[in-house]
């Protein structure tokens, strides 16, 4: 029997999906959505709030505030509700309606910026609004997931060891790059191990995180319009870029086999598939590989799983008219 008294005390650490039998991809997905926030972000949210409490930054009259594309906002809403803190989440139009409603259900106040910053896009606009609110009232405490050490430390302390425990012979780890907290925590953890693990960051075309040119991105989760301050590219072995139409196709192919994942997972699987296909072409030995699946797909039913939305954003030819069953996912 498992008995908990706080919502973030439950988070399934050891569930993996083997994509080899159904999709012919030698990849295990670490499923991170089995918790009350529904995503990997519960780890970072808990770590950052507890860190702020230990350091005396949070007081009874404090108001938590954060900029989020969605999942961290939900995670902080859960923890703020449990601890009794008011919470304001600043989002942009790419945040799904279901995600905003979840935050509000937990008691959070959601503010949506409507215009992107001319240079730094919607993320820049969100950050500017957070700064203005903090300047207007000393009760606001910005956790700042983009630079807060608690973000990556949560994954250094938990996610990396959870993977190593189940896959002691791991060769390659694929991690999506958003704030880069999960990426940095895992990369630092595996860099400290005696056995070398090849860490591949998976990012979205249009993201500036690794120096690429900015472009429109419509799927929340991965990619940035402002380079994350906590990123240390020197401990990343390789970067794979994925176009959003490939993310959409991969998500739909997974769903046709009963696995409903979010856009970040589709991006990771698409990037990993492309990387593994190139490795196979070079005749390399079989590898033990893991990718991190940050969340599930229910919150994306009105966007990347909605045929009209996909056609409006990416064109009529992104998805086949009759999906059928996929025997293999390709990038």
What report would you give on this structure?
The chain has 331 residues and is of the alpha/beta class. It has two domains: 7-31 and 155-314, 3-Layer(aba) Sandwich (Rossmann fold), CATH 3.40.50.1100; 41-142, Rossmann fold, CATH 3.40.50.1100. Helix content is 37%, strand content 14%. It has a six-stranded mixed sheet. It has a four-stranded parallel sheet with strand order 5-4-3-6, sandwiched between helices. Helix 2 (41-54) crosses helix 6 and helix 3 runs parallel beside helix 4 (97-105). The longest helix is centred in the C-terminal third of the chain and has 19 residues, at 263-281. Mean pLDDT is 93; it is low at 323-328.
Question: What is this structure, in a nutshell?
Answer:
The chain is an alpha/beta fold and 331 residues long. The protein is 37% helix and 14% strand.
Shape, principal axes of CA atoms:
globular
Strand neighbour order, sheet with most strands = 1-2-10-7-8-9
Q: CATH first level of the largest domain: which class?
A: Alpha Beta
Q: Report Rg.
A: 19 Å
Helix content: 25-40%
How many strand units? Answer: 10
How would you spell out the order of helices and strands?
A: EHEHEHEHEHEHEHEEHHEH
Main sheet specs: 6 strands, mixed
Counting H and I runs of at least 4 residues, what is the number of helices? 10
């Amino acid at each position: 029997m498992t008995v908990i008294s706080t919502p973030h005390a439950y988070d399934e650490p050891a569930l993996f999906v083997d994509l080899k039998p159904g999709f012919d991809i030698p990849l295990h997905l670490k499923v991170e959505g089995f918790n009350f926030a529904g995503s990997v972000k519960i780890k970072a949210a808990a770590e950052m709030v507890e860190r702020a409490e230990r350091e005396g930054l949070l007081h009874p009259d404090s108001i938590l505030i954060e900029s989020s594309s969605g999942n961290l906002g939900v995670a902080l809403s859960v923890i703020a509700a449990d601890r009794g803190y008011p919470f304001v989440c600043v989002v942009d139009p790419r945040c799904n309606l279901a995600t905003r409603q979840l935050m509000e259900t937990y008691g959070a106040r959601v503010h949506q910026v409507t215009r992107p910053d001319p240079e730094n896009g919607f993320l820049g606009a969100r950050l500017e609004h957070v700064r203005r609110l903090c300047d207007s009232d000393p009760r606001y405490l910005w956790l700042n997931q983009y630079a807060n050490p608690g973000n990556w430390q949560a994954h250094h302390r938990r996610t990396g060891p959870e993977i190593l425990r189940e896959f002691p012979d791991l060769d390659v780890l694929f991690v999506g790059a958003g704030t880069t907290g999960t990426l940095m925590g895992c990369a630092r953890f595996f860099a400290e191990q005696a056995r070398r693990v090849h860490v591949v960051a998976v990012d979205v075309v249009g993201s500036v995180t690794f120096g690429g040119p900015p472009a429109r991105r419509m799927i929340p989760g991965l990619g940035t319009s402002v380079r994350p301050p906590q990123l240390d590219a020197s401990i990343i072995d390789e970067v794979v870029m994925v176009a959003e139409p490939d993310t959409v196709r991969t998500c739909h192919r997974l769903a046709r086999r009963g696995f409903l994942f979010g856009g970040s997972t589709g991006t990771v699987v698409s990037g990993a598939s492309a990387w593994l296909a190139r490795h196979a072409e070079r005749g390399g030995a079989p590898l033990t590989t893991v990718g991190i699946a940050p969340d599930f797909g229910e919150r994306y039913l009105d966007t990347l799983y909605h045929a009209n939305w996909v056609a409006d954003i990416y064109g009529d030819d992104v998805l086949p008219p009759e999906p059928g069953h996929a025997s293999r996912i390709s990038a």
